[in-house]
Amino acid sequence: MLLAILLCLFDWSAAQLSFSVSEEVDKGTVIGNLAKDLNIVSQQLEERGFRIVSLLSKKYFEVDLRTGALFVNERIDREELCPNTHKCSLNIEGLISSPMNIYRIEVNILDINDNAPKFLEQIHVFNVSESSSAGERYPLPAAHDADTGINSVKTYKLSPNEFFSIDVSTSRDGLSAELVLQKALDREKQPNVKLILTAVDGGKPARSGNMQIIVNVVDRVSVSPTKTNNI
């Protein structure tokens, strides 16, 4: 409430400061020096009543009035603050008196690879007719990664087997994968094929998540090969 009143009473400074910090850094991590960027002698910050104000639920940032250093004051979880967005920034204000002024400060929160790809289900089961021909394709479930950019899902891998390969493609809708039948199935010889699908992100080091694929081989007249059943 106090901040809202102040914003109505006083003019914004024309200058806006911008800083960047990675999520999950330790408390006390310095991300910039406000005294230097605002051309204020650090000793004057306390004399002029400088303080950080914001409408955020937590006080993520604070300033050392002796040095002017802007530092992290609370744990920052980018996925919690900005779920499913490529850009994440927190806006705070620096309030100073004598004379009164408010400085806009933007802190960009950089993503780190702290989440592994996950599938919505642990096991995916579907039926394929033994009459299916080599080259037929079957869409695979997509994995979700809370991280963005380079740290999101970048590829899929399939466990070695003699019947299926995997084809990974990228479109405007994102990354997708399909099973491609390489060899005719024979229900009498092998009634099902068990595979492991792995989603891998682009982080360094990379993180991954797995899902089991069970392909039930059905009689030629039993079930359409496009019918799926998830458990």
UniProtKB/TrEMBL annotation:
Annotated PROSITE patterns: CADHERIN_1 (PS00232), CADHERIN_2 (PS50268)
Positions in coiled-coil regions: none
Main location group: membrane
Membrane topology (UniProt): Single-pass membrane protein
Cited InterPro entries: Cadherin-like_dom, Cadherin-like_sf, Cadherin_CS, Cadherin_N, Protocadherin/Cadherin-CA
Domain named Cadherin: residues: 13-119, 120-227
Molecular-function GO term, any one: calcium ion binding
Signal peptide boundaries: 1-15
Keywords: Calcium, Cell adhesion, Glycoprotein, Membrane, Repeat, Signal, Transmembrane, Transmembrane helix
GO biological process, one term: anatomical structure morphogenesis
Name of protein: Cadherin domain-containing protein
Source organism per UniProt: Oryzias latipes
